[in-house]
């Protein structure tokens, strides 16, 4: 068992906001970022919780990300809002544009938000859950860095390209998923490398384009997509939808721009919102029941809905008004805060 | 090598239209269906070419599908068009609604078409390519019958739930993919069963929910999704997007309604259209170049774009103004036509 430390929910927020502000994020950015870090930590999603403060700070220290950037919100069409993050972290742009996205989706039936020129470090599930909280279905996707080979290829070209979806449920936690289209997340391979453990088959190839289970070689070679040529096709779609479609970078362009630095990747993001009312011809409650029967049928056969574990952790942590984090992480975070 | 027969492109069209008309489809339906059967046959997609005439005829013989149904096109919101197929095959409804979908996407930036109460037998790639031909990106998805178990489950619940995407390319065949979210297509398992060949691992489970490579047991058990829990999550999303979101059936409801008959599945479909002009802030040509660099990088490393094989077959068959089909299929088709 890890050596953990317990923080109150208030302490999670305070630690995040104060660290961000000390390193040069203004109050608006610090709050938008903290909202998301807090939501992840509350659900015991450690990899996207307080741990991500290191990446945020790195992004601002390298002087590439702007901690006081004011996002520009552009009404780009009846069903399109574009949010130029102006080199800030994506989350303030997201927060600023979200009310317009929701309004446009409810008015038109479907709408899109394109976030441009942003640094992006966060999980996508909180973003699509902003939509399901508003009674809409939501989809989000974005590129990253060119670490992943297309099916049949030998070199990194695609990002780990996450895809997320959320569906609103009456009086219940939404149905939500958020996954990387790479077989493994980049950080997972890094953990295998540190532990000196062999990777499973089918996760990566070496620099020569040959299958490898050596995590060191995998880091210098290329990762594989999940699901063979189907996952590869989806990943290419994500490159297009969150890149050229919205006038922003592909994973290869994003990686070239970063020049090997460890800050958050810089690129665009697309978020789609769907209004069940207009799309169902007003028959929302019958169709909510239909969706609930589908979910019940999943659970009845012993399967799990995608976010059940996180949602259970959230309920548990809310009830005790606290979360546990590894003691070593906490000590590093205190150092990070003092290191401003 | 199979014993093949060569048909002129004109013969493909005539055989399809006349067979459909003889069995009770009106001229509009026969033409809408033939356009799609022809496109598949032209690309050597045999499983969705003339072979599908058997399913069309079955659907009308069982008296469930209506061969003269007039689709009702409903303007359901600024960015939503709904097409009620009124129990006809989906393709006439699709054809009737497509101009509105394109117009709405170009005006709003993004738009959705919901097709309801349709029999659906066709591949999705021709549907999304109607959008890329109009300069739009397109996405389509639909349920089928509850043959596929969710990840961690033991029983059929999800459909083979196809997902298709197309991206317009200047002066080139579009980038298109169209895949089932099940590991195998239903028909593939049927082929293994007939041939008495064992299935690969990871494709199916038996009635008791245990992994099996026995195709007979798989037909009575459940199929698996591609890509483990990620593919399963995507398949659930497709159930929701093309079912409850648009007031139509889930795969389980569709299978119950069919009562074991071999006609085309009856349910809904959602098609999404995205306008590169509005979404990119008018910078279409720079972003077309960016997308082309992505495709070139795929091909340069020896990988293939998803539809390259079909597009090469199409070019070849257009040049010789003919296609080859198995002789046995041709003989069965002639019988089908006479059997009206």
Automatic annotation (TrEMBL), chains A, B:
Keyword check for Oxidoreductase, yes or no. Answer: yes
Gene Ontology molecular function, alphabetical: oxidoreductase activity
InterPro entries, alphabetized: Mal/L-sulf/L-lact_DH-like_ah (IPR043144), Mal/L-sulf/L-lact_DH-like_NADP (IPR043143), Mal/L-sulfo/L-lacto_DH-like_sf (IPR036111), Malate/L-lactate_DH-like (IPR003767)
**What UniProt keywords apply to this chain's record, in alphabetical order?**
Oxidoreductase
Q: Which domain of life is it from?
A: Bacteria
Which PANTHER family is this protein grouped with?
A: MALATE DEHYDROGENASE, OXIDOREDUCTASE-RELATED
- Family label: Belongs to the LDH2/MDH2 oxidoreductase family.
Name this protein carries in UniProt:
Oxidoreductase
């Amino acid at each position: 068992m890890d050596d953990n430390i317990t923080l109150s929910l208030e302490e999670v927020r305070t630690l995040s906001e104060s660290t961000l502000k000390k390193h040069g994020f203004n109050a608006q950015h610090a709050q938008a970022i903290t909202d998301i870090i807090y939501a992840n930590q509350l659900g015991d999603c450690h990899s996207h919780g307080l741990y991500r403060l290191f990446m945020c700070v790195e992004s601002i220290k390298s002087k590439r990300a702007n901690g006081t950037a004011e996002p520009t919100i552009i009404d780009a069409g009846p069903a399109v809002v574009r949010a130029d993050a102006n080199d800030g972290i994506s989350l303030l742009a997201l927060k600023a544009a979200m009310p317009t996205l929701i309004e446009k989706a409810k008015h038109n039936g479907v709408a899109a938000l394109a976030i441009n020129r942003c640094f992006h470090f966060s999980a996508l599930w909180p973003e699509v859950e902003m939509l399901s909280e508003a009674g809409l279905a939501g989809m989000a996707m974005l590129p990253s860095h060119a670490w992943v080979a297309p099916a049949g290829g030998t070199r990194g070209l695609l990002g780990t390209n996450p895809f997320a979806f959320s569906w609103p449920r009456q009086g219940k936690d939404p149905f939500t998923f958020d996954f990387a289209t790479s077989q493994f997340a980049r950080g997972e391979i890094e953990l295998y490398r540190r532990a000196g453990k062999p990777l499973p088959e089918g996760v990566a190839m070496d620099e020569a384009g040959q299958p490898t289970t050596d995590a060191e070689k995998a880091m210098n070679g290329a990762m594989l997509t999940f699901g063979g040529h189907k996952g590869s096709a989806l990943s290419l779609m994500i490159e297009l939808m969150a890149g050229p479609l919205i006038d922003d970078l592909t994973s290869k362009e994003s990686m070239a721009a970063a020049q090997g630095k460890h800050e958050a990747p810089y690129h665009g993001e697309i978020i789609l919102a769907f209004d069940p009312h207009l799309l169902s011809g007003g028959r929302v409650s019958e169709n909510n029941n239909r969706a609930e029967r589908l979910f019940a049928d999943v659970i009845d056969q012993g399967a799990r809905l995608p976010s059940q574990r996180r949602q259970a952790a959230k309920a548990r942590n809310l009830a005790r008004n606290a979360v546990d984090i590894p003691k070593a992480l906490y000590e590093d975070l205190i150092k990070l805060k003092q290191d401003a």
